[in-house]
Design brief:
Blueprint (H helix, E strand, L loop, with lengths): L1 H9 L1 H4 L3 H15 L2 H9 L10 H27 L5 E3 L3 H10 L6 H20 L2 H7 L3 H22 L3 E4 L4 E4 L6 H18 L5 H18 L25 H7 L3 H30 L12 H17 L4 E3 L3 H6 L5 H13 L12 H4 L1 H10 L11 H17 L2 H18 L8 H18 L2 H4 L2
Antiparallel strand pairs: 1-4, 2-3
Protein name: NCS2 family permease
Pfam families: Xan_ur_permease
Organism: Haloglomus irregulare
Length: 461
């Protein structure tokens, strides 16, 4: 009876799938994206620091919040959008939240969460009236196809830094190779990365999370055997905690301590970064899954966009950064997942993973950040879709990809690509190909660059 009800609700016959296929697809996608339960807390714990709690305790809180936000968003994707996509706090966006907004601009983390909630509400409203779809479809194609690769390069830099493979060299070349042979963290990180690549290349399901766990286990074993001193490769494991009250609702305090002008600028920044990162991710997932139409757009994109908006709002309320669709969802599609049943399985498995939250604090950051480098390599694959023989595509795509890691900012890369697109199109006499919305986006990003580089934002915080 339940099988028939599920088949009718999700439309198995219409989509040429079965319950068994959908369950397998959901489990596959969950295994490939489950690393976020470990990686997201590792990134956000640098910036989200509730008073009176150790980093280990905060990591466990953030793990709970990560799971709950992924559950809410993916459940919405399943029941409302009927798409086989998994959602969770986005890589790249969490780095932007932590390293740019909080640590670089000095915005209180509560205020940053408030900005996430506000932009989530704005996204829901824009999706409801169809504005997000219009803007996404007006997104210049070369920039749309290169966003994923740019974010990948940005994530790789963050991951390699935490692994101590890349280190600062302010008096020389800005960055340089770390002391891999003499630094235990760097050495184990490289071995763990190579192992994870090997597992991934061999098609092992859950290769990334397995690589992280094996690298962590090797660190604990090395300390137990006396190869390195205690505390070099491992974390002290705090007592288990599921209490997220220091994070949940913290955005309310953030709203109470904002200065209107500066907060508007922060929301403005989050809006553009999140908007186009989500557009790029959805396009990348649709591209990998073969769901795009002849114009490169995802049919009925409003529904997954609404799930994204709801997930982002819920995530900000709970205490995490922006939620987005994961490109790893393509692995479930390759297993035959075609409906929201796949997403429902993902959501249920995320909820079940709450039992493993106490282990999150035991994972060292160098081990968890292996995932960033692996995913970065996968995301670089989108480069091949860019028409590099067309200079009006090559320049915006190249600027998008290069500016992100070199400025440590996703927003700058997107802005550079969008601004350069109408410039090169006009220079080659193809100005008629530029829509009014594309000109408006370019003008808006000129303002974005001015705000970010003139000191206006820092001066009003």
């Amino acid at each position: 009876m339940i099988r028939e009800q599920l088949a009718e609700f999700f439309g198995f016959d219409e989509h040429g799938t079965t319950l068994e296929t959908e369950v397998l697809a959901g489990a596959t996608t969950f295994l490939t994206m489950s690393y976020i339960v470990i990686v997201n807390p590792g990134i956000l714990s640098n910036a989200i620091t509730p008073e009176g709690f150790s980093q280990g305790a905060v990591i466990q809180m953030l793990a709970v919040v990560t799971i709950l936000s992924a559950f809410v968003a993916t459940l919405t994707m399943a029941l409302y959008a009927n798409r086989p996509f998994g959602q969770a706090p986005g890589l790249g966006l969490n780095a932007f939240f932590a390293f740019t907004v909080v640590l670089t601009l000095g915005v209180p983390w509560q205020t940053a969460l408030a900005a996430v909630v506000v932009e989530g509400v704005i996204f829901i409203a824009l999706t409801a009236v169809g504005a997000r779809r219009y803007l996404i479809e007006a997104f210049p194609e070369p920039v749309k196809l290169s966003v994923g690769a740019g974010i990948g390069a940005f994530l790789a830099l963050i991951g390699l830094q935490e692994m101590r493979v890349v280190v600062a060299d302010p008096e020389g070349t800005i960055v340089t190779l770390g002391a891999i042979a003499s630094d235990p963290v760097a050495a184990l990180s490289v071995l763990g990365l190579l192992l994870t690549f090997a597992l991934y290349a061999a098609g092992v399901r859950g290769a990334i999370i397995l690589g992280i766990l094996l690298t962590t286990a090797a660190g604990y074993a090395a300390e137990f055997a006396g190869i390195v001193t205690s505390g070099t490769l491992t974390n002290r494991i705090p007592g288990a905690t599921y209490d997220i009250t220091p994070l949940a609702g913290a955005f309310v305090d953030g709203l109470q301590q904002v200065e209107p002008f500066s907060f508007a600028l922060i929301v403005f920044t989050f809006f553009f970064v999140d908007f186009f990162d989500t557009a790029g991710t959805l396009t990348g997932v649709g591209q990998a899954a073969g769901f795009l139409d002849d114009d490169g757009n995802l049919p009925e994109i409003e529904k997954p966009l609404m799930a994204d908006g709801i997930g982002t709002t819920a995530g900000g309320i709970l205490g995490t950064s922006t939620v987005t669709t994961y490109i790893e969802s393509a692995t479930g599609v390759e297993e035959g997942g075609r409906t929201g049943m796949t997403a429902l399985v993902i959501a249920v498995l995320f909820l079940a993973s709450l039992a493993l939250v106490p282990l999150a604090a035991a994972i060292p950051l160098y081990a968890s950040h292996i995932a960033l480098v692996v995913i970065a390599v996968v995301m670089l694959g989108n480069i091949v879709e860019v028409d590099w023989d067309d200079i009006t595509h090559a320049i915006p795509a190249g600027m998008t990809i290069l500016i992100m890691p070199f400025t440590f900012n996703i927003g700058y890369g997107i802005a550079a690509g969008i601004i350069s697109y109408p410039v090169v199109k006009t220079a080659t006499g193809e100005w008629r190909d530029i829509g009014a919305t594309q000109w408006a986006l370019a003008a808006a990003f000129v303002v974005y660059f001015f705000v970010q580089t003139s000191g206006v934002l820092q001066g009003n915080l």
